[in-house]
Task: structure prediction
Amino acid sequence: MTPEYICPLCQAPLSIFNRSLKCEHNHSFDIAKEHYVNLLPVQFKHSKDPGDNKAMVNARREFLEKGYYQPLANLIKDWYQEFGNVKGKLLDAGCGEGFYTHQHKTDSNAVCGVDIAKEAIKKAGKKYQACHFSVQTLSKLAFNDQDFDWLYSVYAPILEGEFIRVLKPGGYLLTVTPAKQHLIELKEKIYDNALLHDEDKQPIKQLTLVREERLNYKMTLATGKDTLNLLSMTPFAFKASQQVKDELAKSEGFECQADFLVKLYQKPT
Ligand SMILES: C[S@@+](CC[C@H](N)C(=O)[O-])C[C@H]1O[C@@H](n2cnc3c(N)ncnc32)[C@H](O)[C@@H]1O
Ligand SMILES: [Zn+2]
Result:
């Protein structure tokens, strides 16, 4: 089972031709040696290298591989096993370097990951060759309508209209967003008055909320490198002074809460 990509320029189906994907209008997209395809035409880019840069992607890979967020990965895989069609098609929307994506691969499903950051997709494709990775923008997905049984988003933008379009009737959308106390101890190092995360985001109105759970646990970050890697994954990293970074770099056993809000929605049949 392979993803049914459509041309991001004219929406016609794409087929494999030598080492590229082509549509009937001769729009062509190369399949890279690192096992991914770039379906983000230049005219869709708002900057030269949109999304996370190489240093951010490397930091994320290093941090995630230490297992600090594995409890979250386990929870979302459990829900997939419980509710999802594990022989169906799954999309990780804003997949980064593929840490959660590849953990959803079974012998019988098809797993796709898309992200706007080329460096992240390159790293994902190279390491996890059983999954299908592509550079795309979530605001205009290069997939057919109703192609996916399961779509999830971990800390990435939620594009409700596009997500609903590519989901099959009865398909599921799982979202992971920050809960109130997420990384509060790290924030307190940076802000004088660290604010709690605002959880009151608009629910997804066109889908039915099936389950909601808060996952909160304490992490002990073994090394200063782990703490700096985590910092670089946050939107407040750029606020940290050199003095704070130097202090965190020397830290050992920094204690910090992970606090996630996980929601599962279903598209009406
Ligand atoms: C906080 S990271 C999360 C990555 C991954 N889900 C994880 O948890 O490791 C957010 C991701 O969303 C991607 N992203 C942001 N805007 C996007 C867009 N418009 N289209 C596709 N990906 C986007 C970024 O490049 C980044 O990899
Ligand atoms: Zn085309």
In short: The chain has seven helices and eleven strands. The domain at 15-266 is CATH 3.40.50.150 (Rossmann fold).
